[in-house]
Amino acid sequence: MRKIAFLLAICLLLSCFSGCAKQTVFSETFYFMDTLIGVTLYTPEEGTATSAFDDCRAILADLEGLWARQKQGSDVARFNEATFELSDADPRTVALLSTALDVSQKTDGAFDVTVAPLVDLWERCGERDKLPTEEELTKALNKTDFHALAVQKSKLFKSDPEVAIDLGGIGKGAAIELLLQHLSTLDLDGGLLTFGSNVAVFGEKPNGDPFRIGLRDPRDAGASVGTMRLSQGQILSVSGDYERYVTIGGENYHHILDPSTGYPANSGLSCVAVIASDGALADALSTALFVMGKDRAIEFYHSDTYAFEAILIERDGTVTVTEGWESNFTKN
Amino acid sequence: MFQTKIASLDWLAVATVLLAACLLWIPFGGRRDADVLVITASDGRSEYALSKDREIEVTSNGHRLLIVISDGAAFVRESDCPDGVCVASGEIHYAGESILCAPAGVTLTVQKGGGDNVDFIAG
Fold first, then answer.
1. Which of A8, A29, A271 lies nearest to residue B123, judging by beta carbons?
2. Are A197 and A176 in contact (CB under 8 A)?
3. What is the pLDDT of residue A10?
4. Could you say which of A5, A12, A192 has the minimum Cβ distance to residue B120?
5. Cβ–Cβ of B123/A218 closer than 8 Å?
6. Residues of A in contact with B93 (CB under 8 A)
7. What are the angstrom distances between the C-alpha of A203 and each of A180, A192, A281, B94?
8. How far is A329 from chain B (nearest CA, A)?
9. Do B13 and A38 touch (CB under 8 A)?
10. Residue A232 Cα distances to A4, A13, A147, angstroms
11. Which residues of chain A, if any, have pLDDT below 50?
């Protein structure tokens, strides 16, 4: 019996120390593209996590160098400065612009990647604390037209030199997917990535539980409207009227602009969450559906133009979940 | 039928083993850390348990922020930065939630302890 007790002792002691080895959560925060990025990794090896964080930092710096509009020499800055074409854009930029154009077309411009003149106008309005004039709005709207863009093989074209692109509504989703793709190739057990309001996961948590993501209540930053399970291959992107805004005359004007009016979208929605396997698509669609409003958004979902699921929160707090996501989302 | 008689010394051995296992489990395997607030500023990174109320003064890039931890939440009460976005951001409670003060180069992020049932609040 003493032998049994001794063996039991060894097993229990070993299980305790194996428990120590499972305390393997490493987190790092980065700041790129004017956005906070959180990376949480599960691995027994601290060196593996440190190396992966270094990779993330390098990837993010690389993408910022390509897609930041204000960064001199970036693909976006060079295209915006170009008269008609950019012939040496990075393949990742070309792929992203192709997706951006496709979503712009299929959503009838509810998402429009050429919204840069309107974004700039509202930023100036915030700085001077004065709403845009009709003349200013008309001028900016005339330059907002995705029809002026084309992507052919590795070249980006525009028919109007004054048209400028802004990847603010799609770049973060694309970036989180590129990070995810890289991290998935490393010897990691799993991880959780957050890029502003974009979320992606891979692998497994140490205890095997599914990743559970709450969706913020638009009118109460400290509360959530519900919780969803997220798995590898599902990228979540959220657009809300509370995220970023300018204050003019004491009133907040949110950053999701309706390319048809030039004003912040007034669709009755206060938050849209989209889940798709393509990060850029999820990001762009969350903006597009927000601009469309609930009825058009649901109609677009049923058109099967893209494979995605969505959660729509109206200003009065009503939450609508698309059919394919109902079993995956628990309302509070 | 084979029967084993367990001597009292054996019970003592088993009890000792279980006690040792429990004592080791508490500090290592069974730890459930409280969530922490991670503050990154120009002079480095610091962490504070969200379970303890306190006020933290941070000076970074020439700006001064007064950060408050209260009732498991953190927020920026005062900042002399030009836009005040950090103060307007309100409270953060959940793992992954962040507040950024770009002019001061300060980030506040809640990192997960052991007790949450969600991994991140998106939005």
1. A271
2. no
3. 53
4. A192
5. yes
6. 222
7. 10, 9, 22, 22
8. 13
9. no
10. 43, 35, 35
11. 11-23
Chain B residues within 8 A of A13 when measuring between CB atoms: 20-21, 24
Structure tokens at B109: 């992020």
- A9, B17: Cβ pair inside 8 Å? yes
Query: What is the residue extent of each domain of chain B?
Result: 36-111
How many Å lie between the alpha carbon of B18 and the closest alpha carbon of chain A? 8
Work out the minimum CA distance from B105 to partner chain A, whole angstroms.
10
CATH number of B36-111: 2.60.320.10
Q: Block means of pLDDT (10 residues each) for chain B, length 123 residues?
A: 54 60 41 66 77 87 92 91 86 82 87 66 86
Domain boundaries, chain A: 23-68+169-331
Beta carbons of A240 and B119 less than 8 Å apart: no
Say if the Cβ atoms of A19 and B9 lie within 8 Å: no
Give phi and psi for A97, each to the nearest 5.
-65, -35
Q: What's the pLDDT score for residue B115?
A: 43
Residue B64, min C-alpha distance to chain A (Å) = 20
- Cβ atoms of B103 and B81 within 8 Å: the answer is yes
* A227 contact partners, CB below 8 Å, separation of at least 6: A212, A213, A214, A215, A329, A330, A332, B117, B118
- CATH class given for the domain over A23-68+169-331: alpha beta
Interface of B with A in 84-103 (CB under 8 A): 89-94, 96, 98, 100, 102
Residues 6 or more apart whose CB falls under 8 angstroms from that of A134 comprise: none
- Per the CB < 8 A criterion, the answer to whether A219 and A317 are in contact is yes
Is the CB of residue A297 less than 8 Å from the CB of residue A272?
yes
DSSP A324: G
pLDDT in the model for residue A20: 44
